[in-house]
Design a protein that fits this description.
By secondary structure, the chain is of the alpha/beta class. It folds into 2 domains: 195 residues, 3-Layer(aba) Sandwich (Phosphoenolpyruvate Carboxykinase, domain 1), CATH 3.40.449; 229 residues, Phosphoenolpyruvate Carboxykinase, domain 3 (Alpha-Beta Complex). Strands 1, 4, 5, 6, 7, 8, 9, 10 and 11 form a 9-stranded mixed β-sheet that branches. Strands 12, 13, 14, 15, 16, 17, 25, 26 and 29 form a 9-stranded mixed β-sheet that branches. A 5-stranded mixed β-sheet has the order 2-3-19-24-18, covered by helices on one side. Strand 13 and strand 14 form a beta hairpin. Helix 2 runs antiparallel to helix 4, helix 11 runs antiparallel to helix 12 and helix 15 runs antiparallel to helix 16. The chain is globular, with a radius of gyration of 24 Å. The structure holds guanosine-5'-triphosphate, sulfopyruvate and manganese (II) ion.
Length: 596
């Protein structure tokens, strides 16, 4: 496949360590993909779904203890512990290699080792970065073929540049106690052992395109962010692009594919998806920031996805898609998940592989879910009806606005704008959000998650904040404006107040108008908040009074919030940029002045 000595040495080294029966190089061809699919169907690793209803679609269940990212088993292995920062688990690289190599020794005996050459970003484009993942799972190979650009051409490209990210994955024995997701940013290396689940094992995604790439971006002057990218085409044909960072399972895929309400579509507004999870951003033409989506598919949350909430996502999953940990309907040979429709199959197999009916309850009488809350679909980006014509762009799309957002029942208003880039970086740094099923652990606990990057930053977050400030200084007057949104404010009964989904267009519209200086706003302690009359409510059963409750900036809440931010910032010690300290002081001063 290649004469490149670095690549050959890498493969030989791990072949010797893991001792597979066979080594297979993945070339990106259809024929090879089909043959592997057949093999995986034969062994039961995947199940072929109804070819009429879901052509080319597969079904897979992971081990019951292996259904989400494992943050407590994820490590940044930098030479110097302080460079991993206070928000990452750290292991000494020498110790980590010794420990991991011991676990990986002979782990592929009786198995095949697949060598996957892949590119994050369009092959040969200025943004592209290359990697090779070794794995003993056909499920991983088939997912990587959807999620990244897998091709033997990558081997030639690596030949030219000489550098690539080394990904070593093995399911080993799927033991939780020996599960490790380790990033070695200084060595361009990732180890993932004892997992077979999505984000833990599709190494191009979180491990490479965020943890390793954030470090590369820091060194090379660009940014790798946990952001969707979307384009809004206005009636005059002009398209504006925004990128938005929300924590896992907080609405990126949904916003990226939104269908605007009638009052917009009737005027000719259209939304195009460039990416739904990751953005690589750098300064480009005209001194502006440009973003690309380095991925090639969507690894989206299934539950809650339906023809009303996100038709574009649902349509994306109707062919050549892999479903993981959803409910299996043996009668029709199709899949189902909570929130797909109101017609669950009468008899099915749940995500654990147990018989299931809509009335199945557990020992405590609680209804058993058919699909795991973090069950997912892996769908090719080109399936998406609203995929942007710029999806394959080599240079990216210019950003008009950057949006941060979290899942907050209280505190954060529906939307507000930062005063300027520096304040915007502060707004990103003080983000907090309720935890979700996307990671193992408790759900619904508010935690700080700066820029939605807490689990994904490959270096010290104090340095990361400084990097954001530096990028702003590089683009100066051309910097995108920075906003914060929150779709998740709840009422006294715990119900979401804002309708969300497609109606989030109403907020995006305000954001664009702000960027064009076409609308005024109220200056508050935390930033510019909309005048309620400026959020379009046409066609919505939603009163201005309701709107005002979710635009409110409350003194007691923000006093507590500031104290909490102060405690969080203390973690970073003297690596917290002075600018952010000053921003906090200024926020506290402004909050004090809020009249009740
Ligand atoms: P990752 O793939 O984990 O990074 O998640 P994501 O940020 O892409 O989240 P996604 O769009 O898949 O949404 C996750 C959950 O939030 C789903 O259950 C959605 O139904 C729900 N959700 C998304 N947008 C909204 C919204 O505007 N309002 C409300 N109430 N829920 C939303
Ligand atoms: C996330 O958790 O943010 C995801 C899913 O996008 S995973 O790839 O598992 O990280
Ligand atoms: Mn994500």
């Amino acid at each position: 496949m290649t004469q490149n000595q670095q690549i050959l040495d890498f493969v030989a080294k791990y072949q010797a360590l893991m001792n597979p029966d066979k080594v297979v190089w993945i070339d990106g061809s259809k024929a090879q993909k089909n043959a592997l699919t057949e093999e995986a169907i034969e062994t039961g690793e995947v199940l072929k779904l109804n070819n009429k209803l879901l052509p080319g679609c597969l079904y897979h269940r992971t081990a019951i203890n292996d259904v989400a990212r494992v943050e407590n088993r994820t490590f940044i292995c930098s030479q110097d512990k302080t460079n991993a920062g206070p928000t990452n688990n750290w292991m000494d690289p020498q110790e980590a290699y010794a420990k991991l190599d011991a676990i990986a020794k002979d782990c592929m005996v009786g198995r095949t080792m697949y060598v996957i050459p892949f590119s994050m970003g369009k092959i040969g484009s200025p943004f592209a970065k290359y990697g090779i993942e070794l794995t003993d799972s056909i499920y991983v190979v088939l997912n990587m073929i959807i999620m990244t650009r897998v091709s033997d051409k990558v081997l030639d490209k690596i030949g030219e540049s000489g550098t690539f990210v080394r990904g070593i994955h093995s399911k080993v024995k799927l033991e939780e106690a020996n599960r490790y997701i380790c990033q070695f940013p200084e060595d361009n290396t990732i180890y993932s052992l004892n997992s077979g689940y999505g984000g833990n094992v599709l190494l191009g995604k979180k491990c490479f395109a965020l943890r390793i790439a954030s470090y590369q971006g820091w060194k090379e002057g660009w940014m790798a962010e946990h952001m969707l990218i979307l384009g809004i085409q206005k009636p005059d044909g002009d398209t504006k692009y925004v990128a938005a960072a929300f924590p896992s399972a907080c609405g990126k895929t949904n916003l990226a594919m939104l269908i605007p309400p009638d009052c917009y579509t009737s005027k000719g507004y259209k939304v195009f998806t460039v990416g739904d999870d990751i953005a690589w951003i750098r300064k480009g033409r005209g001194g502006k920031l440009y973003a690309v989506n380095p991925e090639n598919g969507f690894f989206g949350v299934a539950p809650g996805t339906n023809i009303k909430s996100n038709p574009n996502a649902l349509i994306s999953t109707q062919k050549n898609t892999i479903f993981t940990n959803v409910l299996y309907n043996p009668k029709t040979n199709t899949v189902w998940w909570e929130g797909l429709d109101k017609n669950p199959p009468a008899e099915a197999i749940d995500w654990k592989g147990n018989p299931w009916t809509p009335n199945t309850v557990d020992a405590n009488g609680v209804k058993v879910k058919g699909a795991h809350p973090n069950s997912r679909f892996t769908a090719p980006a080109k399936n998406c009806p609203c995929i942007s014509p710029e999806f394959e762009s080599r240079t990216g799309v210019p950003l008009t606005a950057i949006i941060f957002g979290g899942r907050r029942a209280k505190a954060a208003p529906l939307v507000y704008e930062s005063f300027n880039w520096k304040h915007g970086v502060f707004v990103g740094a003080i983000m907090a959000s309720e935890t979700t099923a996307a990671a193992a652990g408790a759900v619904g606990v508010v935690r700080h998650d700066p820029m939605a990057m807490l689990p994904f930053c490959g270096y010290h977050m104090g340095d990361y904040f400084q990097h954001w400030l530096n990028i702003g200084a590089k683009v100066k007057k051309n910097a995108p404006r920075i906003f914060n949104v929150n779709w998740f404010r709840t009422d006294a009964n715990g119900n979401f107040i804002w309708p969300g989904y497609g109606d989030n267009m109403r907020v995006l519209d305000w954001i664009l108008k702000r960027c064009e200086n076409a609308v005024d706003a109220k200056e508050t302690a935390i930033g510019y908040v909309p005048n309620s009359a400026d959020i379009e409510l046409d066609g919505l059963d939603f009163s201005t009074k309701d709107l005002e409750t979710i635009l409110d900036v409350d003194k007691t809440t923000w006093t507590a919030e500031s104290e909490d931010i102060e405690k969080f910032f203390e973690k970073f010690g003297d690596r917290l940029p002075a600018e952010l300290k000053n921003q906090l002081t200024a926020l506290k001063r402004r909050v004090k002045k809020i009249s009740n």
